[in-house]
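Exam revision sheet. Question 4 asks you to relate a sequence to its structure. Input first:
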Amino acid sequence: MPTIRPSADLRNKYNEISEFCHTYTEPVFITKNGHGDLVVMSTETYELLAGKMELYNLLDEGLMAEKKGKTTSSKAVFDTIRENMNF
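Answer key, structure tokens:
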């Protein structure tokens, strides 16, 4: 269940919101005049989320390349790596 707080809590209960975000690694939804306005989360949670998005984008890019036939065999990739490392 999402945690929803009024915007006044950012000013009046910042430490409480910060502690919640760090303890539960969940975002807190902030409302303004009864409507959704912001989402607050810890830096750690944001970095995890951003990392997942980057991974999903790379996976999608790989799947699209595979569909277009623009792939390289793993043997060719490892051969190139070995050549560049002078093994």
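Marking note for examiners. Residues 44-84 form one domain.
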